[in-house]
Amino acid sequence: MSLDAARRDQLIEHIASRVRQWGLSSPGIAFLEINRPFSYIGSQFLLFVQPLLASFIDAKLTDEYISLLEDRDNMRRLIERLELHQDGPEHGFRG
Fold first, then answer.
1. What is the helix (H) or strand (E) element at residue 62, kind and residue range?
2. How far apart are CA 31 and CA 53, in angstroms?
3. Are 71 and 78 in contact (CB under 8 A)?
4. Hey, how many other C-beta atoms are within 10 angstroms of the C-beta on 75?
């Protein structure tokens, strides 16, 4: 499954906004930078556990996240989104 650019950007923005809501922008950036070379392996792991996740998460959404993780450039895009708003108004957990 291949993501179109609009859906890819929507998923990246959703992940970035959740990370910012939890106040984890800096640790998230560090985690992504360290693990960027392993993003493809992470996508393959998701593919492996997809049958288990099917009872919790929509299969289409799981496929989209797998496609997102397969491309290292998407990790770079996510890091850039987190850095862009790292100290912005959404910084901090809101419960």
1. helix 59-70
2. 23
3. no
4. 21
* Eight-class DSSP state of 48: H
Can you give the three-state secondary structure of 9-35, one letter per residue?
A: HHHHHHHHHHHHHCCCHHHHHHHHHHH
Distance, CA of 59 to CA of 51 (rounded, Å) = 9
Distance CA 60, CA 26 (A): 30
> Which amino acid is located at 1 in the chain?
M
Task: Report the distance separating Cα 24 and Cα 17, nearest Å.
Answer: 10
Amino acid at 71: D
Task: Report the candidate in 48, 73, 63, 75 with the shortest Cα–Cα distance to residue 2.
Answer: 63
Mean pLDDT of 71-92: 80
- The distance of Cα 56 from the centroid of its chain, to the nearest Å, equals 18
Q: For 17-49, how does the pLDDT look when each residue is reduced to its tens digit (9 = 90+)?
A: 999 999 999 999 999 999 988 988 999 998 899
- What tokens does 26 get? 């800096």
